[in-house]
Design brief:
By secondary structure, the chain is an alpha+beta fold. The protein has 3 helices and 5 strands. The protein has one domain: Glutaredoxin, CATH 3.40.30. The protein is globular, with a radius of gyration of 12 Å. The mean pLDDT is 95.
């Protein structure tokens, strides 16, 4: 079972962040969400087993981001923000 890490904050809908633990832009996105006080769930894909990461990328991430760039944030299963975009995140969740 894949464990999502939940960060407490204001409920702005279902916010899921697919990230890499070593990615500077992923860390900046987490920091931005923390500064905005938004509740979100995140998953560091590179810390999963190969089978788990392959499954998540094939079944979830590719649907929003076919090139598998990180970070990939999905809000309310309807909007994706790919890469670090402070303005877009603030507009959507600020």
């Amino acid at each position: 079972m894949i464990e999502w890490k939940h960060i407490e904050g204001k409920n702005k809908g279902k916010v899921r962040l697919y990230a890499l633990s070593t990615c500077v832009w992923c860390k900046k996105t987490k920091k931005l969400l923390d500064q905005l006080g938004v509740a979100y769930d995140h998953l560091d894909i590179d810390l999963l087993s190969d089978a788990e990461s392959d499954k998540i990328e094939a079944e979830e991430v590719k649907k929003w981001n076919p090139k598998l760039n990180y970070p990939t944030m999905v809000v309310n299963d309807s909007k994706a923000i790919v890469g670090y975009s402070e303005d877009e995140v603030k507009k959507l969740l600020g």
